[in-house]
Amino acid sequence: MRALAIAVVLIVVLIVAASVPLAVSTAEKSVFMNSNFSIYFRKSDAQNFWNTYGMLLNGSEFTVEVLITPTNYSKELGNTELHIESYFIDKGVEPAILIDGRNVEYRNPLPINPENINEIKILLTAEAVNNVKMRMPITLIKITQRTSEGEYMIENRETNVSSWLIEEAIKYMEEAKQKIKEAEKIVSGLVNAERELENARSQLSHAENLYMQGKPERALEEAKSALENAKIAVESAGSSRRMGDVMRYVLAAVVLVIVAVVAFVWFRKRQRERGKLG
pTM to 2 decimals? Predict the structure, then answer.
């Protein structure tokens, strides 16, 4: 009967997994365990950074909390294991494990029997890497469930460690790219605008190189200059186009005036000729 029950559950897993996007893993989303992820920061600046970018502010202290509750399906599995991964665990940080409110010794993998528990709480308190010079991708926490039937994803949180300065530099580089693309569509044949566009391209390239060298402050300065020159290129091209339009209107008006004068002179001449003949 247990084997039949597990087979039924696995069919359900396949049906559910077909409608759930996969995390960055080959494991299917678990229907045996529900999870609820929370993160708390000691300082409001770090919390604001997380709320803005979904990233860890460099040097910030935080606590990750994952609350896991077995579903009805898990009762049929019997003994199983939870595997917990994190950049911070790799660096020696041990999470606290509470099963039904009781502290248990941290073990990885963590053996459990879902039939005998109501909830598992995993608390990981750590400090983000300090003085990062560019975005640093990390696994914040990843929890998988391994059974005799396969591996299933419970929680998977990937993020970056970054800083306000880094994100500002990236923002200006992206804005400069977009403004350069805008300028490229309209500057052709306009010498001044093309010169400003070339300056913007050069400064953006320099900004990107400085960023990759771990110099976000200088990258930000170059990115701001690139954006400013790209804006000048767009404005210069727009002014030139507008001036060209004005000159065309002026030329058309001059032509009309000349035509009118010629017509008037011709008309007066015809009148005089008719007067003499009369």
Answer: 0.74
